[in-house]
Design a protein that fits this description.
This protein has about 500 residues and is of the alpha+beta class. The chain contains 10 helices and 12 strands. Helix 9 packs antiparallel against helix 10. The chain binds zinc ion (3 copies). It comes from Rotaria magnacalcarata.
Length: about 500
């Protein structure tokens, strides 16, 4: 009976998808006065994002997407319930100090989540009971400034020690703690490992069976998880606890129930067999009883294909190189064991990273010195070239001036010279005309007149040329003035640009 239920549900893709999905809880924003108008709420939310954007971008410099919720609604009490799957935004909104007091006449108070998502959480393992949570807080606050929450993990409390979960808002500090692998508390080294998201299991709220939700349930009525009776008949607050799956002495949704346990086991096996299809970001926690024996990494379920490992590795290298990166890290797989040898090897690993960083820093310093020297040389040469170019430009401008003066004086000489020639020609013409008039020899008269005619032609020609020259001269002068202005402008630009 159990097998058939499991097989019918385990085969659906939904179950597996649900198991690995890591939803972030809603952000609850209390409003005063209460909201009742969708339009007003929309304006409020828009204004809210424009108010927080500057601070958010300052803290998340690599975040390129626009700000907004995935969806939101006004709840029964007239407050806002907002959802996002962006971890950066979620973490930012977990800090009550990041909210304005008032938006557009509405007072707002954030009811922030008590914990950050698994990607921001670290487990400090086996902390002796005589070190109190308060002591841990104090000790950690010396080295880490962005502690959001510290709490004991309920399932881990043993006789002498327990695990403590610590949430850090800064991704840099998270990486720092994960890379060091240990932290010292009360003079004792404590192993720090990533907090892995537990597998999520769908349990139907109607029939209490795993693997589907109420909407898809084939049951006829809501079944009491204590006694297995019909919920709308009789009293069910103090009814006898007797599991209706297995008749055991537990509630039917309890992890003690073989049905639920079997379901978890099958689900984990299915996910293990399909690990190559898991998204890169997903790292699931495998409870002790379901781990593969003899595999040292049996505590964690991740996509282990060559490609995925390579991608993860390149991300990790990047993180080691630059702690300011703002993407969430894909963590290196930390070989897990519960002895302190791991802690030691982790700290050794930390030392190696540190040495590597110092070496890289030195190389970088040498490169920087070389670069600085080159920069100074380049600056020197640039200045020399600049001075040269400047003097060439002024020389050009002087030369142009001189050329123009020469042309001008040549023109004026011509202008003075031509009238003298024309006057001489006129006088000669008059003399010739007179001589022709006085002459009695017809042949001589004719030749005088011909010469006078030629003189007239030359005179006309000269006058024409004179007009042409003065026109050209005026044009030339205009051009020169324009060129001079352009050159001056060029020189000015050259000087101001340089400043
Ligand atoms: Zn059901
Ligand atoms: Zn009952
Ligand atoms: Zn049971």
């Amino acid at each position: 009976m159990i097998d058939t239920i499991i097989n019918s549900y385990i085969s659906t893709e939904n179950t597996a998808t649900h198991a690995i999905e890591q939803h972030l809880p809603p952000i609850n924003i209390k409003c005063e006065p209460k909201l009742n108008d969708q339009k007003h709420a929309t304006t409020l939310i828009k204004e809210f994002f424009s108010r927080i954007e500057k601070e958010f971008r300052k803290l998340n410099t690599k975040y390129a997407k626009p700000l907004g919720f995935d969806y939101w609604f006004i709840d029964r009490d007239g407050n806002l319930q907002c959802f996002t799957h962006e971890i950066e935004l979620f973490v930012f909104l977990c800090g009550s100090q990041n909210y304005p007091d008032k938006i557009l006449d509405t007072k707002i108070t954030a009811n922030t989540p008590k914990r950050l998502p698994p990607q921001c959480s670290i487990i400090l393992k086996y902390i002796p009971k005589d070190i109190s949570v308060e002591d841990i807080k104090n000790e950690i606050s010396i080295k880490y400034q962005t502690t959001f929450n510290i709490e004991e993990m309920r399932g881990s409390i043993g006789r002498t020690s327990r695990h403590v979960r610590i949430d850090l808002t800064s991704q840099c500090e998270y990486t720092k703690m994960m890379n060091s692998g240990v932290i010292a508390i009360g003079g004792q080294l404590i192993e720090a490992v990533e907090f892995l998201a537990p597998l999520r299991i769908l349990i139907c709220s109607r029939c209490n069976a795993p693997g589907h939700i109420k909407k898809d349930c084939k049951g006829e009525h809501d079944v009491c998880r204590r006694c297995g009776g019909n919920k709308i008949q009789g009293e069910h607050r103090e009814c006898t606890i007797k599991c209706h799956h297995c008749n055991g002495n537990h509630e039917s949704t309890s992890f003690e129930c073989p049905l639920i346990t079997e379901f978890r086991k099958e689900l984990i096996n299915k996910l293990k067999s399909k690990a190559h299809t898991l998204p890169l970001k997903v790292q699931l926690f495998i409870p002790t009883e379901f781990r593969t024996q003899g595999d040292k990494n049996n505590r964690i379920l991740i996509n282990n294909t060559k490609n995925a490992c390579l991608q993860r590795q390149s991300q990790t290298t990047l993180l080691n190189g630059n702690l300011n990166l703002h993407e969430w890290p894909c963590l290196p797989r930390n070989a897990n064991s519960q002895t302190h040898t791991t802690a030691n090897s982790s700290s050794l690993n930390g030392n190696n990273i540190w040495n590597e960083m110092i070496k890289t820093q030195n190389e970088f310093n040498i490169l920087k010195a070389k670069f600085d020297e080159q920069e100074i040389n380049m600056m020197k040469r640039y200045n020399e070239q600049k001075i040269k170019l400047g003097s060439i430009l002024s020389l050009m401008s002087v030369q142009m001036q001189q050329q123009n003066e020469t042309i001008k004086s040549a023109c004026s000489t011509l202008n003075e010279f031509i009238p003298i020639v024309t006057t001489s020609l006129e006088i000669s013409q008059q003399i010739l005309c007179k001589s022709a008039y006085n002459s009695s020899d017809n042949f001589e008269k004719l030749s005088f007149e011909t010469v006078a005619q030629q003189l007239q032609t030359s005179k006309n020609f000269l006058n024409e040329k004179k007009l042409l020259i003065s026109n050209k001269n005026a044009q030339l002068f205009d051009n020169f003035e324009q060129n001079k202005k352009l050159l001056q402008h060029g020189i000015e630009l050259y000087i101001t640009n340089d400043e």
